[in-house]
Amino acid sequence: MTAMKEQIAQHTSAQTTQQQLPDDPLAPKPIRFTQQQARVTQAYPPHYEDADEPSSRPPRSAMRYQDTLPHQYRGQTVLPAPPEHLRRQRLTGNAPGQQQRPSTRRNKHWSVYLVTGMATMTALVIGLNSLGSWWQHVQDDWTYGYPRTYQTDAVVGHNHDSRAHPSHFLAINLHGQVEVFELPAGDPTKVHVFLGPLLSGNGADQVVVTISFVDSDHDGTPDLVLHYGDNEEVLDNKGGTFQMPGGKV
How do the domains of the chain map onto residue ranges? Predict the structure, then answer.
């Protein structure tokens, strides 16, 4: 206010000097106010004093940021819109100098990780077992076909068989019924059929059946060993033929 009053006093003094003195090229030029400065000058009454009066600044509750046109807030102090980072701080509640609030998210209990790990391992084991079973099934299809069939030749002393004319054996799993066919010395007119066990349960018709020969009773003639799954049965070589356990032919 003091600076404004000094400008007003200088303007008044310049007008008085211009009226009393003739035109002097060395005289200072009078101060000319713009229309805006003139309106500001006329806004103060003549009896206005810049005394130590209480501050006439309106409270902060009356201040409005200028988001719209100024004429909408007549009679109120309008301030320019704050910078973007101040708006963000006001919305988030993190004003300068304030400590950021720690995260309230609770740490997961160790049991959650334990249960998740066990479930993952269980699913992995089941998946690997299923994959292994599927691959074994594919290999059995390639090797033994369907129905599961196995055949081999051996000299067992039937029908005068020999290395030149061995006996031919064929084992088959026909819908769960295990059967063994023997062609002594390769002669199909003297074929013998031996009925093995009847398998049951899920996938019984997928069980692989094989045969081998070993002299289990040490009588000098090879006995027939029937393999199906994890089980096996021995057919004794007696009297020119094979006998099932219990003496059945």
Answer: 1-56, 59-93, 110-144, 146-243
| Cα 88 from Cα 166, distance rounded (Å) | 96
Residue type, 227: H
Question: Distances in Å between the alpha carbon of 139 and those of 2, 30, 83, 206, 211?
Answer: 105, 113, 73, 12, 19
Give CA torsion, residues 180, 186, 189, 192, to 10 deg: -20
Question: Which one has a higher pLDDT value, 69 or 185?
Answer: 185
Residue the block writes with tokens 């000097």: 17
**Contact at 8 Å (CB) between 169 and 154?**
yes
State residue 87 phi and psi, 5-degree precision: -60, -45
Strands (E), 36-98: 64-65, 78-79
Angstrom distance (rounded) from CA 99 to CA 127: 50
222: nearest Cα among 234, 208, 210: 234
What CA–CA distance (Å, rounded) separates 243 from 249? 4
Q: How high is the pLDDT of residue 109?
A: 75
Measure the CA–CA gap between 128 and 135, rounded to whole angstroms.
Answer: 10
Owner of token pair 């074929």: 191
Please write the tens of the pLDDT for every residue from 15-66: 555 544 455 555 556 666 565 555 544 444 555 455 455 556 666 655 555 5
From CA 233, how far away is CA 245, in angstroms rounded? Answer: 8
3-state DSSP helix/strand/coil percent for the chain, to nearest 5?
Answer: 35, 25, 40
Measured torsion, CA atoms of residues 193, 197, 200, 205, in degrees rounded to the nearest 10: -40
Query: What architecture (CATH level 2) is domain 146-243?
Result: Beta Barrel (2.40)
